[in-house]
Structures are given as structure tokens and as C-alpha cells.
Design brief:
By secondary structure, the chain is mainly alpha-helical. It has 8 helices and no strands.
């Protein structure tokens, strides 16, 4: 019970996010090192396809499709989105040539971060807060004193519950930037 919510759940979130960025840089380095940079361009197609596959969860959640377990589709959504984002980061590379790739890559990173907030922080933090409160009450502390002791953790969890409001519009902005990017590549080659 001595670990705070931030230590217990924020660090795994940062590790997954950092791991994705690290792998993207490492793969990009090796593509450049072995002069197979053109293969990174193809990862844009593959990454987009993998991310599109991850949206079966969203379709199921909104009851546009009936098949599939929502829990399994959510897990699939999380991992496919992470993998597709990794591919797109390698596609973008460490170098940027224009404002649109900068914006699309920034929105990709923000979208992944907002998704990871939901995965790691919100669910686990809420569970942890409930467990801490139950332990304090079981140890003889009254409900009001337990709430007072856990006030900062409660505020943190309440703020994190707002992530869903941001995740969908951020995802939509990523979609818009991606479509504009694809259209401009088709138009200007």
C-alpha cells in the first residue's frame, strides 16, 4: 500500500510509450545503417492497415458489428494500435521534411499517449484507490478519515477519468492529418 498511484501505474505507461519511441528510433537507425530506407516507406501502408484493424473494437463497442468479445477486441485494439503506431513512427523517420508529417506524427504520439492513459492509468488507478480505501477501513479508520487520507489519489483518478473525452477527438485529428498526408502524397508523389 506504500506505493503511490503514480509510481505503480504512471511508470509502466511511460515505459510502454518510451519503448515504442525507442524501437522506432532503433529500427529507423538500422534501416539507414543497412541502406534499406525505402522499406521504411512501406511501413506507412502496413502501419495504417494494422491501426485500421484495431478499430474493430470501436465498431463492436458502438454495436456496428455484433461478433467478437469486447474485452478481447479491446486487448487487440491496444496491441495493434501500439504496433501500427510503431510502424508509422518508423515510416515517419527521425527526419521531417514538411509541416504535415510533423503534425501527423505529433498527433500519432498524442493519440497513443491518450490510449495508454486509458489502458494503464485509469483502470488500474481506480482499482488501486478502491483497494487502499478498503484496507484503511478494514484497519479501523472511518470512511471520512480514509477519504481525507486518499484525497490526492482521488483527485488524480478523477482527472484521469476525463481522458475519454480527449481520446476520440485526438484520434479524429490523427485520421484527418493521415488522410491529408495520403492525398498529398498521391497528388504530388
Amino acid at each position: 500500500m506504500s506505493k503511490s498511484i503514480i509510481n505503480k501505474y504512471a511508470f509502466p505507461f511511460l515505459q510502454w510509450f518510451s519503448l515504442m519511441v525507442f524501437f522506432a528510433i532503433a529500427i529507423d537507425y538500422f534501416l539507414h545503417r543497412f541502406q534499406i530506407v525505402l522499406n521504411g516507406s512501406y511501413l506507412g501502408f502496413a502501419g495504417t492497415f494494422v491501426i485500421l484493424l484495431s478499430f474493430f473494437y470501436s465498431l463492436r463497442k458502438r454495436k456496428l458489428i455484433e461478433s467478437g468479445s469486447p474485452k478481447k477486441l479491446l486487448n487487440l485494439h491496444e496491441y495493434l494500435s501500439w504496433l501500427g503506431s510503431l510502424m508509422l513512427l518508423v515510416h515517419a523517420g527521425i527526419h521531417f521534411n514538411a509541416i504535415l508529417p510533423w503534425l501527423a506524427t505529433l498527433m500519432l504520439l498524442v493519440t497513443v499517449a491518450s490510449g495508454l492513459v486509458g489502458k494503464f492509468l485509469l483502470k488500474k488507478s481506480n482499482e488501486n484507490l478502491k483497494q487502499k480505501k478498503q484496507l484503511l477501513i478494514a484497519d479501523g479508520m472511518d470512511k471520512e478519515a480514509a477519504d481525507k487520507k486518499l484525497f490526492m489519489d482521488s483527485v488524480t483518478v478523477d482527472l484521469m477519468k476525463k481522458w475519454r473525452v480527449a481520446h476520440l477527438p485526438i484520434s479524429m485529428l490523427l485520421l484527418i492529418f493521415s488522410i491529408v498526408h495520403i492525398v498529398t502524397i498521391i497528388m504530388f508523389g
